[in-house]
Amino acid sequence: MKDLLRTDHLTREDVELLLDTAARFADAPLAERSFLANDTVVIHMTKPSTRTRLASETAVAHLGGTPIFVRADELQLGRGETIADTARIISGYAKALIIRTFAQSDVEDLAANATIPVINALTDDEHPTQALADWLTIRENFGNDFSNRKFTYVGDGNNMAQTWLEMGAVLGAHVVVATPAGKWAPDTAVVARTEELARTTGGTIEVTHDVKSACRDASVIYTDVWMSMGDSEADRAEKIAALGEFSVTDALMNLAASDGIFMHCLPAHRGEEVSADVIDGPRSVVWREAYHRRTTIQAALFHLIRGDIKGRLA
Fold it and tell me: Which residue numbers delimit the Aspartate/ornithine carbamoyltransferase carbamoyl-P binding domain (predicted)?
């Protein structure tokens, strides 16, 4: 598999390889410090970023390469050059392309026309590099055996909710996503696709509107901001009202398993999707999770460039 475009393009073996290598890079960041010597990696972002940009640039540097960061207004894409032409040009200069943008179709078009690996560092549909960081953090806390555990996401049925469903299906885990009914629930096509995949991996996919049931005995309670980049401000009041009962407070965390942890992909809005007591409390692992954005992007670059990822669609 040349590119990392969607979480469910990976096999469980691919994920385990990436997480094993990321764990090695967590302990020894410079273990492959000559891998990208004299090479560049282009990092193109049309959405603001803290963790993804810092993690990507640091990952490239730790592999011995030079990151080239370009904003949307710094490429000719904004003046009418095609995605295909841009992909061909970048392929001639760099060993890989990391992109964070809005439309999933733009990332897929870039990958189709590039001869180098393309890594999706977030679209409106997907966030595979975040999912890798999440599950490395989960593995550090609970080991490789995900059986008899429940992993719960609560809140907006956005790209992170959908990515969690996909990763749960890939790993054969029991993943629950609790959202309001209606337009803030996960995309029905994604739910159907992950349910079908889970039947082949031994996973269990649940989508519910009962947040207390979703959190009861969960090993992880995970959430994301309620207003994502690109969301209409006209929807704010309605959306926040609909999501009110999905705020992760001490009351919800008390429903979790005794060793349950809290996770968040950040940035966080204390007082909305999570209380300060939870995110800054002893059960929160969000800072370790954020640290693993670097280790997992580093692992993805390493294995994609080497051609080690088999992929579900290969």
Answer: 2-140
